[in-house]
Amino acid sequence: MIEQQKPQQHNFSQYFVKRNNDVRRSNQKHIIRPQNTAFNSLSFRGQRGYSNDIMNKVSTKRAPTYGAILRIDTPTPLYALVQGRYTGKWSFPKGHANEGELPMECTMREVGEETGIDKLPTATDYIKVGYGHYYMFNLKEPIPLIPRDHKEIIDTKWVTLEEMAQLSLNADVSMYRKMLLAQ
After folding, report:
1. Which of 86, 88, 157, 159 is most buried, most CB within 10 Å of its CB?
2. Are residues 145 and 85 part of one domain?
């Protein structure tokens, strides 16, 4: 006959101790703190283990983002979107301004690189949506979207607000879409 062994019982009280001076005044419950010395090596305060070069790093502000909301005035308006290579998300053509570059210069450069469109009518509006600053352009008919920057852009298309719902949108386009649908 095989003898059954009882499971070994552990005495966890050796790891924890109840201290009377750790009483919370709000509900008078005792706090149990770890007594095991293994916990002493962990730092729960201060820099949390980050190196000094990271903690003392001066943050540098990024150049503002400028872009264009290209809209075709039809009964169901169409919007030009570009798909970024790194995120796969669809966004309005946009980018960071180079040093000394004016907002409209940045917008025209980015639109040209990402859509291939070099001539646009006069902007009808200027809005801030999410992280970007956008000039609004109303076009009369679709212009072929042929990106020149294939390192950052993998696809381009004209879409309706309804079609945008099926795409993975970046924050700016998503906010803009919600703003229009709420009107």
Report:
1. 159
2. yes
CATH number of the domain residue 99 falls in: 3.90.79.10
Q: Please tell me whether residues 34 and 69 are part of one structural domain.
A: no
Residue 135 belongs to domain spanning: 65-182
In a domain, residue 51? The reply is no
Identify which of 106, 119, 110 has the alpha carbon closest to the alpha carbon of residue 152.
Answer: 110
First to last CA, the chain: 81
DSSP letter assigned to residue 169: B
Q: What is the pLDDT along the chain (183 residues), one digit of tens a residue?
A: 555 555 555 444 444 444 444 444 444 444 455 555 554 554 444 445 555 555 555 556 677 899 999 999 999 999 999 999 999 999 999 999 999 999 999 999 999 999 999 999 999 999 999 889 999 999 999 899 999 988 999 999 999 999 999 999 999 999 999 999 998
Which structure tokens are listed for 85? 């290579």
Q: How far apart are CA 30 and CA 66, in angstroms?
A: 57
Q: What is the pTM of this model?
A: 0.67
What is the 8-class DSSP label of residue 43? Answer: -
Same-domain check for residues 24 and 85: no
Q: Specify the number of domains making up the chain.
A: 2
Pull the structure tokens for residue 117.
Answer: 């469109």
Residue pair 35/16 in contact (Cβ under 8 Å)? The answer is: yes
